[in-house]
Amino acid sequence: MTKNLNPFLTEFHTPHETTPFHLIRTEHFEPAIQHAMEVHNQEIEAIIHQAEEPTFENTIVALERSGALLDRVTTVFGNLLSAETSDEMQDMAERVMPQLSEHSNNISLNEALFARIKAVYDQTDHETLDTEDRMLLQKTYDGFIRSGANLTPEQKERFRQISSEMSVLTLRFSQNNLKETNQYELALTPEQLDGLPQSALDAYAQTAKEKGKEGHIVTLHAPSFVPFLKYSSHRELRQQLYMAYNTQCMHDNEFNNLDIVKKLVNLRLERAQLLGFQTAADYVLTRRMAEKSERVYQLLNQLLEAYAPTARKEVEEVQALAQELEGEDFQLMPWDWAYYSEKLREKKFNLNEEVLRPYFELNRVIDGVFGLATRLYGITFRENPEIPVYHPDVKAYDVIDKDGSFLAVLYTDFHPRSSKRSGAWMTSYKEQWKDEKGNSRPHVSVTMNFTKPSEGKPALLTFSEVNTFLHEFGHALHGMFADTTYQSMSGTNVYWDFVELPSQIMENFAIEKEFLNTFAKHYETGENIPEELIQRLVDASNFNVAYACLRQLSFGLLDMAWYTRTEPFEGDVRAYEKEAWKQAQVLPNVEETCMTVQFSHIMAGGYSAGYYSYKWAEVLDADAFSLFQEKGIFNSGTALSFRQHVLSKGGTEHPMTLYKRFRGQEPSIDALLKRNGIIH
């Protein structure tokens, strides 16, 4: 293929130089990646072989600016691998991931390059550099050390092997998960539809139609799986679906992840020990706010102690209702939890998620969320049909700053499909940076798996889907407001236990009456969401909050158990999991299930020894939002301060420095305990 026919290897003649998805074919990626690696190698050689002595500008900044073409291609490839994949792309990923890993290692283990970096690091008076330059120098130097620059030749060789193996295994882990999810379907007979709301019935009929079948089909995608467990009155079917979901990637087939888990855990441990750390967690946490495993456990245990008594009471209450309905001998099992919890919530608060759905029509929710950003920050969103997209479901927007200048591109992709992995995430197709041409603005994307429109009905979201939207949109604001010199520190390129603050703080608005009244209107009548319904929503906002907290803590404990090991793991993955999180379990244990084998966050998604970040950031967001509550939730002064001190700064300073600049103090867990009604 000639280079000039490959869209990656020419200028992007699109609005804001956005990715020309309409021109890109799967076969373009591999040659573009190969060519981009060659270009990157030439750039590295030019840094090493220049005649001038190493300086911050000719070495550190030159390295930061190198690899732009490779970054452009691999960013699109990696994002589409999650959002619009195919067997062909996944096969290609298996080929190119080890090559990319090798390429990265060739740079980080290049002795001549590291010698120049070390010379700049040792000879520069760090105090003479401005804040961003100082952080870039430190980050570059640390990054090379963490990538093996100080290892012996034998150790470097092993480091390369480990990196290559991990890149293949993480990819395979995710692919197995996607394939297992897509393979399963539960066809319902007319007698098995009892209890299911119309929205679920419409969705299941739509799924069957898409698969070319009659009747109703349930899948393991969240918008399908969750309502079934919540509303189906057929206990044996709930159990069947629950077991299908919680035994994914454990069956005796090619999608089994048990061995992959062991290999990944052991490779991460070996890499950490090769670099002089005792555990994989020690290696990870040196670049986190928590810094040490002890501080992670301190937080997890503090929350466990605070929430466990309430969580046990919540379970007793659901169990009591189940016995009242089913008889004294009834034993509540995990596949019963959502069903009887929902019944209890209806009984206590007269609130059913389905009653809320008609008020959360997707287009109105989009208007509400965009409108919130307009009220807080003065930014506006204009759909731009000229921007190419990678799937008909995707929309692209120009985001305009309050002074009328162009701020960012935002892509939205809301509905599940077989080519998209499960979950919800924010990503960038292009990050922000500054150079001699000016301030190069970012292209940001939010990707979800929300309830789809069905025959004659628009997409009506659940309240938890509205929450998810706000969460991912918070990440998007972090990306869109980026205003730093260097790409590697812009937007969401921050410590992982800080990255969830901008997302989680947005979730607080979900139960604010002032916010809901801006968009929550009945999709048929146009009437506002009734005041008393909002009040019921507020009253129910802490319903089973302690149970939900313990569930998150159990994931955090499981994650830390895998990555605080000092010896390789050779045991039974399932048994180890049960032991790791037992102190946070409040429902009966189901022997055959296993989460680790499908826990992409900690095995393949970058959250290894980092899942605690959600709770860490929740402490920050409760503390930070209390300032919004104090000054008025739409207070533009508070929002401006949050934008200036947190959202626009990226990773240019230590997160606690940025946080204190906004908040005026360090956070404590008290605001979270108060918000959740654990203390008053």
How does this structure look, described?
The protein is built from 27 helices and 9 strands. By secondary structure, it is an alpha+beta fold. Strands 3-4-5-9-6 form a 5-stranded mixed beta sheet. Strands 1-2 form a two-stranded antiparallel sheet. β4 (395-400) and β5 form a beta hairpin. The longest helix has 34 residues, at 293-326. The model has no long low-confidence stretch (mean pLDDT 96).
Regions with little confidence, pLDDT below 50 for 5+ residues: none
Number of strands: 9
CATH class of the domain at 3-150: Mainly Alpha
Largest sheet at a glance? 5 strands, mixed
Question: N-to-C terminal Cα separation, in Å?
Answer: 67 Å
Estimated helix fraction: 55-70%
Quick structural overview:
The chain is an alpha+beta fold and 680 residues long.
Topology:
Elements: H1 26-48, H2 56-65, H3 68-83, H4 87-108, H5 111-123, H6 131-146, H7 153-183, E1 186-188, H8 198-210, E2 216-218, H9 222-231, H10 235-246, H11 258-274, H12 280-285, H13 293-326, H14 334-349, H15 353-356, H16 362-377, E3 380-383, E4 395-400, E5 406-413, E6 425-430, E7 433-435, E8 438-440, E9 443-447, H17 463-480, H18 501-507, H19 513-516, H20 531-539, H21 545-563, H22 573-580, H23 600-603, H24 613-631, H25 636-647, H26 655-663, H27 670-675
Parallel strand pairs: 5-9
Antiparallel strand pairs: 1-2, 3-4, 4-5, 6-9, 7-8
Helix pairs in contact: 1-2, 1-3, 1-4, 4-7, 5-6, 7-11, 9-14, 13-14, 13-21, 17-18, 18-24, 25-26
